[in-house]
Amino acid sequence: xxxxxxxxxxxxxxxxxxxxxxxxxxxxxxxxxxxxxxxxxxxxxxxxxxxxxxxxxxxxxxxxxxxxxxxxxxxxxxxxxxxxxxxxxxxxxxxxxxxxxxxxxxxxxxxxxxxxxxxxxxxxxxxxxxxxxxxxxxxxxxxxxxxxxxxxxxxxxxxxxxxxxxxxxxxxxxxxxxxxxxxxxxxxxxxxxxxxxxxxxxxxxxxxxxxxxxxxxxxxxxxxxxxxxxxxxxxxxxxxxxxxxxxxxxxxxxxxxxxxxxxxxxxxxxxxxxxxxxxxxxxxxxxxxxxxxxxxxxxxxxxxxxxxxxxxxxxxxxxxxxxxxxxxxxxxxxxxxxxxxxxxxxxxxxxxxxxxxxxxxxxxxxxxxxxxxxxxxxxxxxxxxxxxxxxxxxxxxxxxxxxxxxxxxxxxxxxxxxxxxxxxxxxxxxxxxxxxxxxxxxxxxxxxxxxxxxxxxxxxxxxxxxxxxxxxxxxxxxxxxxxxxxxxxxxxxxxxxxxxxxxxxxxxxxxxxxxxxxxxxxxxxxxxxxxxxxxxxxxxxxxxxxxxxxxxxxxxxxxxxxxxxxxxxxxxxxxxxxxxxxxxxxxxxxxxxxxxxxxxxxxxxxxxxxxxxxxxxxxxxxxxxxxxxxxxxxxxxxxxxxxxxxxxxxxxxxxxxxxxxxxxxxxxxxxxxxxxxxxxxxxxxxxxxxxxxxxxxxxxxxxxxxxxxxxxxxxxxxxxxxxxxxxxxxxxxxxxxxxxxxxxxxxxxxxxxxxxxxxxxxxxxxxxxxxxxxxxxxxxxxxxxxxxxxxx
Length: 792
Hints:
The chain is an alpha+beta fold and about 800 residues long.
């Protein structure tokens, strides 16, 4: 009864808390969402805000009746919502960057612009190329320069400039590219939240010139210098490329870019990815260390707080000024200000204040998953931890009716352990409950190992952060080296623990997005330029035909599989040794479970193929070879027949050794000829003409650019052709003669340079083919298709 009353009293006290910023935050959210959905111009929202303010000023007063006070409060709510709606529109659709973006043609324009580098340049993989954000100050049209004020992303060639450099660039000004495949991260949408809608793409190194240095925000320049110094100190005497050093840097500075994707995936699987987000743990550690150091000097409390509050915001600036670190800094400032004025701080109100002020700076943050996760998790910690900890701690403590002066050492130790253990468990459970809905909705993942993983890794993260901060504070080089090596051991322990939990059966489960119209099977022909990757999914099986080039699985295939609830694939068929088709096979092997692996029977000179086969052998896995006549029973009603290659041909080009596969899915036929050219087509016409007929033909492009022959097309008689079209090399572009040939035969052509990925859905009564970019849809009923083939 006592526990029930305590629980009820806790919730009553929570409801009685004064939360003025909660109401302001609700008004701000209402205004941002309304502006995003309604499409009204900013002047209309200014009028609405004016009406709300006038209502508030006319009706507010000390002696106002309750009804008038409610209307006045509603007017103030409308005023705040209107103001945030205006800010949202000015930062978004009516910003100069958005207006410039809407004026650009689809192919972009040649442009010459001058401006200042406003973000830390990032080097792309491979070097001699990178990207950064630039604030344009002038643009050139003809011989004259005109003033401008908008932000663009610059894709640079050659040695990268530094933050604050004034640069002049010449290149193609174009809108940011949208995702071309399902599952891909929308980089354009992410940058638009930062006010960037277009990019300048340089062609040659000479097209970018650094004019001067030292511009930009001096505080930001100082923060970047401090970040570089911190990175150098905390990794001194360590291999910067080692996972341990990268983990220390990621946890201290929030830099996850260099981290191997395999390790990042293990942290996601165990629900500990938040450790890389510079947030309350990190900012609190900085504040605690500063308090400890400054208190030893005998400095007055007011002076200490006056130093620590700016230091917290400077640390948030060093780590990238991300919402979690800004939120933690604002909340820390509220708590310290409460100490300064000797007033109690309502933590939930401080959280709402942090969100309110962040949205003033950038209203589009509300649509960011990182922003939502940060605030929902902290809100869950504030609300749920006290009652959870109380209920967990109570049965673990010694007799609470025993006076404390009678406690033995064992009793005190028991109470201490009960308090610490219940605190850790309650924090882990509350954080999991606060994040699970968003994690499932955004990342399609439920981590069942999150609670035990956080119980172990949060204290470890505290130790790593403390050791890294201590390394920054000491002045003796030998002590820095000693602390860094100790941190290396702690980071190794964390990596080992995360890996061990991640590989446990049932550690996590992918939950696919619901589909309201479920086909018998789905085939996705991904767009990866001149390469190839195709997914085939049935009710019980998931197969891949090729994986695209290196980097493509991490960027596209793996997110796509997670969206559909997949944690592995049952079969992987690699058509030939071209790195643009199988370069990503190693990434697939590292990150998900593979079932059967198939290669063509004919060997080639591909080093990518040899490396992958060697890795399979090292892991105790084997591959199977495919040749003419092989038949794979993939699932009920789904059969793959291998039409090519035979074992008795001798070709030097890998494209001439590629697998040709005929898929039969519920009576529908799909012919995949990969990058086959003239030689393969002739062999098929001579040896397998009667089996070539297919409803859908999927082709790549031969290295020598030989397209489909008319006699081969007549033998296949497809209704749909899906073909890759690469910008480079010139030989792999789609020849106009082939387009004319397809029109003559009434074949619907899906060019992937126009459609992006193409999805083929197999139903018992119809076939649907749809492009990803243009959403073009082809639908063919089975009866119509049968009669069409018979008439030919």
